[in-house]
Amino acid sequence: MTHMDYKYSLLGSEVDDYRKRPLLLQVDDTPGEPVCDLGGETGAAEAVEHAGLPQPHPSLQLRVRPGRHVPHHGLVHPDGGQEGPPPHPVPFPLQQPAVERSRRFKVLVNSEPHMFSVIPRQFQPGVKNPCWYEEYTGNITSDPYRKNMYARYSRRFRTEFQFLRNTFREHLIHHDGKLYRMRCLPYFYIIGQPKCGTTDLYDRLKLRPDVRFTTFKEPHWWTRKRFGISRISKGFQDGYPVEDYLDLFDQSAYQIQGNLTAKGSGSPSHPNMIIGEASASTMWDNNAWVYFYDNTTEGEPPFLVQDFIHALQPDGRFIVMLRDPVERLYSDYLYFGITNKSAEDFHEKVSESLQLFEGCLTEYTMRSCVYNITLNNAMPVRLRIGLYILYLLDWLTVFSREQILVLRLEDHASNRKYTMHKVFDFLNLGPLTKEIESEITRNPASNTRKPADKNLGPMLPITKEILRDFYTPFNEELAKVLRNDSFLWNNNSTL
Q1: How far, rounded to the nearest angstrom, does the alpha carbon of residue 410 sit from its chain's CA centroid?
Q2: Which of 27, 58, 367, 382 has the most CB atoms in a 10 Å sphere around its CB?
C-alpha cells in the first residue's frame, strides 16, 4: 500500500494532557459546557514591581466542549477499516502547577546574566518607544561595529553599517565628562507566522513616517542568533550578544534622539516615532531550549522566548498574522522546497509528518511534541507551525490579550485598509495624510507565490481533506479563545 492508498481520519488518542505552563486555568467540571477562566489583572506598574515576572492577564473565558479529543490520525482504508488505537477523550488544555515567581525570575537572569545587565528596567521618559542612554566607554576613533556578528557575516548589512560608522560620533551625547549613546528596543514585534503575510504587513508599515524597523526584516535574534543558531542542522556558532541586536536599531535610535532633542525647540518631526521588529520565528521557534536550559520538565521547555521578552519589556506589543493552516503548510512547502516539488510529493511528506507526530503523541504530551526538536527536524513539512492555538496560549501565560493583535491574512488580502487601520489603532499611531494612506493600502502584495510554484497547481483534494481533519480541533479552540468564528476557516480559502 502506497501513501496514496489511504487517508488519515481525525480520531482520539490516549495522550497525556496538554501540559501547560502556569496559565491560571481553572476548569469547571460540571456537566454541559465547562468554562475555563483565565483571570486576574495586571498593569505596567505591577509588572515592574514584580521584576518582569509573568503576570496574569485580564479576565478571559475559554469554553471547552466536553469530550474534546486530541487528534489521532489512524489509517483509514477505502473500506472504512481503521488501523490504530480507538479514540479516548482528553481535556484540552489542563492546568499545570504554577512555578514560584521569584525563583523563576532568578533562573531567567542566571541563564542570561549579560542580557539583563545591558538592558535597564526603566526607559527614557518622554519617548513612546522603549529607549535609554548607555554610557559609551569605547575608543571614539575606532569602529564601534567591528565586532558585530550581523555586520561580519552578512553582505547585505555592510552598506548599512558603513553609514552607521560614519555617523556614530556625531550622535554621542556629552554629559558630566562622559559619552552616552541612545539605545532602543522595539515598541512592537510582528511575531508570526511564516507564509501568513508578515512581509506584506512589514512593507506597508515601513511606509509610515512614524514607524521604523531594524535594518532588515528578520534578525531572528530572540529565537536563533543569540544561541549561535543559523540552522540546527549546521550546528552552533558563536552566539550574537545583545549589543549586536541593539545595533540594528541604531539608525532609528538616532531619529528618536533627534526628535527628543527637537522637543526643546518645539519642532520635533515625529515625536511619537516607534520601532518594530518582524522576525516571523518569534512566536513559535524555541528549538534551542533543549540545548541551553536544564531539561527538568519531562521534555517540555521550562522557559520560552516570550518569558525573556516579558522580563525585559512587560508592556511590549505583538502582532500575529495567521492564515488557514492547511494553505499555510502548502505555501510553506512551495516556498522552502528546493527540488522535485509537486502536489504528489507534498502529499507524501504530509503523510510522513503526520505519522511521526502521531508516534510522538503515543509517548509524550502534546506540548512536548510541539517543542520536540528531534521530531520537528525529522518531519519533512513544518506541520507544527499551523497549531496556532498552542503557541498563542503559551504567549498568553505572560502577556495580556490586549497586548496581542491577531489578524487573518484572508481579511488583509480582501480589505487592506481595514486591517491596516486595526494595526494603526493597536499601535496608537496618529492619523496619516490621504496620500500616504493611499500608498500604504494601494501597493501590490509583497512576497507572493512565484510563477513556477503557481504552475504546480493546488494540493491534491485528499491532502487537503487530511490536513483539514488534522487542524480542525486546533482551529476550533483558537476561534473560542479569540471569540471569532472566522478562525475556523470553514470557507476553505485558497490564498
Answers
A1: 19
A2: 367
CB 391 within 8 A of CB 478: no
User: How many Cα neighbours within 13 Å face the side chain of 464?
Assistant: 14
Q: Which residue has the cell 503548510?
A: 329
The model carries a pTM of 0.79
435 contact partners, CB below 8 Å, separation of at least 6: none
Domain boundaries, the chain: 3-488
What is the distance between the alpha carbons of residues 368 and 286, in angstroms, rounded to a whole number?
12
Closest CA to 302 of 479, 139, 166, 106: 106
Dist CA 78 CA 268 (whole Å): 70
Three-class SS of residue 419?
Answer: helix
Q: Say how far apart CA 51 and CA 463 lie, in whole Å.
A: 48
Please give the full DSSP string across 83-116, using - where no structure is assigned: ESPPP----SSB--PPPPHHHHHHHHHHHSHHHH
CA pair distance 188, 181, nearest whole angstrom: 22
Are the C-beta atoms of residues 350 and 463 closer than 8 Å to each other?
yes
Tell me: the pLDDT tens digits for 264-301?
655 556 678 999 999 999 999 998 887 776 555 567 88
Give the Cα separation of 492 and 468 in Å (integer): 9
CA distance 484 to 482: 5
The single-letter DSSP state of residue 82 is: E
In angstroms, the CA 144 to CA 115 distance is: 19
Q: Which residues 6+ apart lie within 8 Å of 159 measured at CB?
A: none
Separation between Cα atoms, residue 25 and residue 377, nearest integer Å = 31
**Alpha helix ranges (H) inside 182-249:** 198-205, 242-247
CATH of domain 3-488: 3.40.50.300
Cα–Cα nearest to 22, from 102, 94, 110: 94
Contact (CB, 8 A) for 43 and 53: no
Q: Which amino acid is at 55?
A: Q
Residue 189 phi, psi dihedral angles, 5° rounding: -130, 135
Cβ atoms within 10 A of the Cβ of 336, count?
Answer: 12
19 forms beta bridges with 94
Q: Which three cell numbers stand for residue 198?
A: 508578515
Kindly list the distances between the CA atom of residue 27 and the CA atoms of 36, 94, 155, 212, 322, in Å, as whole numbers in the listed order. 5, 8, 53, 43, 28
| Beta carbons of 475 and 325 less than 8 angstroms apart | yes
**408 neighbors 323 (Cβ within 8 angstroms):** yes
- Distance, in Å, from the CA atom of 283 to the CA atom of 395, rounded to the nearest integer, reads 8
The cell for 6 is 489511504
